User: Fold these one by one.
Assistant:
Number 1:
Amino acid sequence: MVNIAVVNDDIDFIDAIKILLTEFGDYKVTVIHEGEKAYHILKKKQPHLVILDIRMDTPHRGWSILDLLKLDPRTNRIPVVVCTATTLNEEKTNWLKKHNISLLLKPFEINDLKTLVDIMLQPPTEPHLTKKQKSKAIALKD
C-alpha cells in the first residue's frame, strides 16, 4: 500500500485531502499536524510521497522541513508536493524546480491534485546509457 504523508496544520484541509486521496486510490494517509515534529516523523515513516504546506505554526516551517528532507540522504529521494496559498518568488520557485519538488497553489482543482499525485508516485526513469557506459557502471558496482 502506498503511504502519503500530509503535513499541514489546517485540520479542515487535512480532512479534505485525506478523503480525496483515499478516493483516488489505495493510499494510506499519514497526517502530521505539528510542523516541529514533521521531519522526524517523515524520516521514521519514509512515506512514498509528502504533501507539504509551507506556512504552518511559523511562516517558514515548511521551508525548514524541505531543507532537512533534501539534505538527509535517508529522505532526499522522497517526492514532495508543496501545497500552499503562499505566493512564491522566483528564487523559491527555482529552488523547488532544482530539487524536483512540485508546486500546487491553493485553491486548486481536484484533478490537478490527482494528476500531481499520480506523476510524483511514478518510479524514476532510468537514464539512457550507452552499452559502454552500462558496462562501466556494472564494473563500478562490483
Note: The radius of gyration is 17 Å.
Number 2:
Amino acid sequence: MVIDYRLPATPFAGTAIVSQPCSVPPLTGMSARMSLFERLSRIASSVSSVGRADARQRFMELAKEWHEATDHLSSPSQIAMHPAYQRIIGMGPSAVPFILEDLRRSGGQWYWALHAITDASPVPPGVRHTSREVEEMWLRWGREHGYIEGHGYIDWMVRSVGVGASS
C-alpha cells in the first residue's frame, strides 16, 4: 500500500506530495497523531530544506535586480510593476519570510507584494502612516504569524493544522 502525505503550503515551501510505501495498518488516537507528526516532520524537513535554499537563492537574485532598478523611483506603481517584483509575488508564500527579512534589513516597498501573497492587511485603513510605521506593522505581523524570529516549519505546522498539538 502507498500513502500520499500532502504537506500544507508553508512559509518555506509549496505543497509537497511524497509517496511512501506503508505496510503497517494506521494507528488510532494520540499515538497515531504523534506517529503521523513524526513522519511528516521527517519528510517535511528533507523536502523544505532543499526547497527553501532554492527559493532563497531565487529571491535574492530577484530582490537585488528589483532594488537596483527601483530604489531611486518614487512611483509606487512603477516600483511594484517591475518584472522582478512581479516574479517575487509569483513565488507565493515561500517568498514571505525572505520579503520580511529584506524589509527588516533594507526597507523598501514590499507592502504590495506582502498583501498580494498573504491577503493580510495589518495596516489600518483610512489613517496615514509613515513608511517606518507601515514597515513595523508588517514586521509585527510576520512575527505573530511565525514567518520571522526563529519560528520554523514544525512550529508553523503545529499552529496551522494542529498536528502534534495536545488535545
Note: The radius of gyration is 19 Å.
Number 3:
Amino acid sequence: MKENIDAFLDAWPSIQEGIVVTLQLTAGGALLAFVLALALGLAARAHNIVIRGSARAFIEFFRGTSLLVQLFWLFYVVPLFGYLIDPVLCGILALGLNYGAYGAEVVRGAINSVPQSQWEAATALDFSHWQRLRRVVFPQAWAEMIPPLTNLLIQLLKGTALASYILLQDLTFEIDQLRQTTGNTLFAFGVGLVIYFVIGYVLTLVMNALEVRAKNRLGTGPSLREIFSLAPSDPRGLEAAKQ
C-alpha cells in the first residue's frame, strides 16, 4: 500500500494537470451546450416551419449519434478536408454539440410548462414577444430547467473521459498512467472515482444554489441566507403554525 501512496504522490502534479484539462473541457463544453440549448430550444418552438424543422433536425442528429463517433469525426475526419482542430477545442465542440442537443429539449419543455395564463397576462401588459419571454416566461422556466440541466452537466463531466481517445491528457488519461505505474487497477481507478465524485459534487452544489436563487426570486422558495441561517427566517409564521 505504501508503494501505491508513494506512486500517487509522485503522479499528483500530472494528475492535477489532468484535472485542469478535464475542467477546461467541462466548462467550455457546458458553456457551448447552454448557448446551443437556448437557441435550439427557442427555435424548436418557432412558428416558421423552416426554423423549427432545422432545429429539430439538428437536435435529433446530435442526440441520435454517439458522442464518441462525433469526437472521432471532429478530430480524425475533419482534418481530411484540410481543417485541423486543436484537441481541446475538438473536445469542447463535441461535448457542446451533443449535450446542447439534449439541453434544447429541456429548454423547450420548461418554456412549454409555463402556464398559458402567464403569456396572456404579459400580452395584456402590451409586452412584445421577446419582452414576454425575457421578463415573464423565462424566469419561471429557468427555475424548472435547472434540475435537468444539472443532470446533463454531470453527464457532460463524465463524458470528458472520452477525451483521452483524441490524445488529450485529461484526468482519465493520468489515472490510467497511475494504473500502469502501480500495477494496481483497484487503487488507481479508486483514486479517479473519488476525484470525479468531488468535482461532480461541487458542480451539483453550485447548480443547487442557482436553483434556490431562481426560486427565491420567484417568491416560491427560501433564499440562500435563510437556508444557511441557524435561526428561523419567519418566527411569526412558525408560532402561527404551532397555534
Note: The chain has one domain: 2-242.
Number 4:
Amino acid sequence: MNAQDAPTQDQQTTKMLDNITKVCSLTSDQATKATPAVKQFIASKEADKAKYAGDKAQLKTAMKADRQALVTNLKPVLSADQIQKLEDHWKQNAQNKSTTSPE
C-alpha cells in the first residue's frame, strides 16, 4: 500500500464511528457526540504510529493507552452496556487477529 493509498484521518474516523454505531447500536445523537472522541483517538493513533514506528512494544503500549482514553471519553455518551459491547468486540477482533496472524 502506498502512503497516498492510506485512508485519511477523516476516513478512518468515519469507518470507526460506523463500526461503533453498528456494534453498539448508537443513536444518531450518540454518534454525533462520540465523533470528537473518535477523531481524537485516530489522531493519537496516527501520532503513535509515527513516533514508535520502529518499536512494536512501545507502539502496542501506546495503542492500549489510546484505546483506554477513547473508552473514557465515550463513557459519558454511551451506556455501560454499549461500552461493554464495544470492549467485547475489540477483544474478539484481537483474538481473531492472533489466531490468523503468522506472527
Note: The chain has four helices and no strands.
